[in-house]
Specification:
288 residues; alpha+beta; Immunoglobulin-like; 3 domains; 5-stranded mixed beta sheet; 21% strand; binds dinuclear copper ion
Length: 288
C-alpha cells in the first residue's frame, strides 16, 4: 500500500509538471527528444520493474508466509468448515462438537481452518481475518484464522453458488481463550432435556416428524445429516446462515415457512399447525 502511494504520488507529480510547463519549453526538466526517451524508459519501464520485483519478493517471503495456513501438526487447533447450499457446517475434530454458521476461535491463537464442500463450489471468506479460499469439490483447502483482537467478524460465501448465495454468511467469534474453552465445553454436552410440558411435546414432535430426517440433536434419536446440527441451536445468534436473528418469533416464522424467508433452500414447508410450531419453538429455544 505504501509502495503504491509513493508510485501514485510520483505519477501525479509528473502529470502536473507536464501540464504546468505545456507552453513553457524553457522550464526545468525540458530538453531534447533523447532526454524525453530517457525519461520514458527510465521511469516508465525501469523503475516499475525494480519496484514491482522488490514488492513481489517481499510479499512472497514475508506476507505469504505469515498468512499461510499452519503446517499440519504445528497448530494448536483445527476447525473444519464444510460449505453446503446454503449454510456452513462447523466441526471441532477430536471433541465431537458440531455447530453451524458460526465459528468460535481463541484470540491470539493460530487456528487452522480446513475447508471443503458437500455440493457445489463455495468460497470461505472472513475479510477481516484472512484471504478467501475456495471450497472445491474433491479438493480440501486450508487457511489460517488468526484474530489479533477479540471481536465478532462477519464471513461470507464469496463464490456464486446458486439462489441463496447472498444468504450464506456466518460469524466468527474471537474470544479470550478461557471463554472459548468454556464455549467448547458447553457445546460438547448432549442436548438439554426439555423443561416443561410444551417443550417435551416439542421434542416428541421433533423426533417423530420429518425434522429428525435432516437434523441431529445429540442425545436424542434425531441423527439426520442433511441440515445443521441443532444440539445447541439456541446458543447461536442467527438462523439460516445469518439470515434471521435467533429469537423465538423468528424461529417460529422460519419453521412455519422457510421457503418464504429463503426461497429455494433445502428445508421444506411442513405445513405444521400453530400448536406444533409453538411446541417445537419451546423445545428448540431451550437447547442452549
Ligand atoms: Cu456458497 Cu455462494
Amino acid at each position: 500500500m505504501i509502495g503504491s502511494w509513493i508510485g501514485f504520488a510520483i505519477v501525479v507529480f509528473l502529470l502536473t509538471l507536464g501540464w504546468w510547463r505545456r507552453n513553457r519549453p524553457n522550464l526545468p526538466f525540458g530538453g531534447s527528444d533523447r532526454a524525453a526517451t530517457a525519461w520514458i524508459v527510465g521511469l516508465g519501464v525501469g523503475v516499475p520493474i525494480v519496484i514491482l520485483s522488490a514488492l513481489f519478493v517481499w510479499a512472497d517471503v514475508f506476507v505469504i508466509n505469515s498468512t499461510a495456513a499452519p503446517k499440519a501438526g504445528s497448530t494448536q487447533m483445527t476447525v473444519e468448515v464444510v460449505g453446503h447450499d446454503w449454510w456452513w457446517e462447523v466441526r471441532y475434530p477430536g471433541s465431537g462438537v458440531e455447530t453451524a454458521n458460526e465459528i468460535h476461535i481463541p484470540v491470539g491463537e493460530r487456528v487452522l481452518a480446513r475447508v471443503s464442500t458437500a455440493d457445489v463450489i463455495h468460497s470461505f471468506w472472513v475479510p477481516e481475518l484472512n484471504r478467501k479460499i475456495d471450497m472445491v469439490p474433491g479438493r480440501p483447502g486450508e487457511v489460517l484464522l488468526d484474530a489479533e483482537h477479540a471481536g465478532v467478524f462477519r464471513g461470507q460465501c464469496a463464490e456464486f453458488c446458486g439462489l441463496q448465495h447472498a444468504h450464506m454468511s456466518f460469524l466468527v467469534y474471537a474470544d479470550p481463550p478461557a471463554r472459548f474453552r468454556a464455549w467448547l465445553a458447553a457445546q460438547k454436552r448432549t442436548a438439554a432435556a426439555p423443561a416443561g410440558a410444551l417443550a417435551r411435546r416439542g421434542r416428541a414432535e421433533f423426533v417423530s416428524e420429518s425434522c429428525a430426517d435432516c437434523h441431529t440433536i445429540r442425545g436424542t434419536s434425531a441423527i439426520g445429516q442433511v441440515g445443521p446440527d441443532l444440539t445447541h441451536v439456541a446458543s447461536r445468534s442467527s438462523l439460516a446462515a445469518n439470515t434471521l436473528p435467533n429469537d423465538p418469533n423468528d424461529l417460529a416464522d422460519w419453521i412455519r415457512d422457510p421457503q418464504h424467508i429463503k426461497p429455494g433452500n433445502h428445508m421444506p414447508r411442513l405445513g405444521l399447525s400453530s400448536d406444533e410450531v409453538n411446541a417445537l419453538v419451546a423445545y428448540l429455544d431451550g437447547l442452549r
